[in-house]
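Example record

One chain of 192 residues, shown exactly as stored in the release files.
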Amino acid sequence: MSFKSLALASLLALPVSAFADWQLDGGASAVNFVSVKKGTIAETHHFKGLSGAISDAGKAQLVIDLTSVETNIPIRNERMQQMLFDTAKFAKASISTDVEVATLKALKPGQTMAIDADVTVDVHGQQKAEKAALQVTGLEGGKLLVTTSAPILLNAGNYELLEGIEKLREIAGLESISPIVPVSVKLVFAKQ
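Predicted structure tokens for this chain:
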């Protein structure tokens, strides 16, 4: 196995295992995404609700609470929840993968590894494989820092989100909203 699996853990995830070797520190972690409207206006947004884990069995998971989307404009938060993500049906997005736990445990504080990972993203009931360029760094106390070394480019069309984007475009009176969404992550996993 390679660290490609860890990349999966860097995005979204499934329910957190009670027997996790590392637990995601949601307060120290971030998942950001960029929306581009009118072809030239880019805005960065994030999610406030993150959870995840890397289990002793090598299952890496990240879960994003889509109801926690933060755009710094309350009405836009509500519209994204309702029209784009349809959080009444799809409240969570997830990413999961298998990792080499022994390799992760061997990382010393300050030691960094670059990983080209294949990740599985589950959003809006659609599961797709994506590529992710990640960096994993050992931290003091056995913690791990996982970051994207380049944004992950998600195509909203792959996740049946184009209709939601069109609704947002119409209600905001915009000429366009790009279906290509750059996503970046900074995840801190604390050893249990």
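Notes: The CA atoms of residues 13 and 62 lie 3 Å apart.
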